């Protein structure tokens, strides 16, 4: 799976940045591929390569009804010639929502399970039951986070990002943060903005880093106060910020991940939490397909349109 559009850095200009003597830019991973957007491209890259190396013809993975990972895995699997199966959380899920409808269009077979079963998805009995139902498959975990995903996301940073002193990314399952942390330079600080409610994410990330033997030469700082109520939760000020950001910079943010990251960093700028002359890089992790799902669920239109073929 090759990138069609090498990630580009878009510099952002605003009078507040000038007043604070800061520079800010966005790494547009949302443009890395027309179908497999953002960090999901990097998470799936080596997993699909490994599936082929193992001679597997089917990929199976897990996700919620509006999952970026389900959306990307369906597209990437079809492109690479794999059959795909999505185990979807919730038996009463609307299979006609934009994410799942797209996944079905890309050939993904959807299998809905109750939430109790979904919570046990990583246990041997559940996996053995899935093998009985679907035969031999290559398993990619929820969100795509595993050793091969971290290998992929460790390639996001490059010589072009070396000038930045502070980098920011949203945190879901943690695979992107760990890959970025592994490739930080000694003078760089990575700000991880959790989109999940709770302090548990700190221990979870420590456990993942230990399990996958991830060490960072730079500093990693986790922020847990910008979740807006929890995963996929939102408040009016978040939506207003997304609209404002689009008007000011013509960069689309989604309400699940990148909107919360952008809001957090802008608040930190207003509160003088960056030293003068800091160079801040926001990492756009894609996920714009989730905006369609957000509108589907809430009826709230965002200021940009997102279409994927």
UniProtKB/TrEMBL annotation:
The keyword Cell membrane does not apply. InterPro entries: ACCD_DCysDesulf, TrpB-like_PALP, TrpB-like_PALP_sf. Transmembrane segments: none annotated. Keywords: Pyridoxal phosphate. Residues 25-286 form the Tryptophan synthase beta chain-like PALP domain. Gene3D superfamilies: 3.40.50.1100. Its cofactor is pyridoxal 5'-phosphate. Pfam families: PALP. Belongs to the ACC deaminase/D-cysteine desulfhydrase family. This is Pyridoxal-phosphate dependent enzyme. It comes from Algoriphagus taiwanensis.
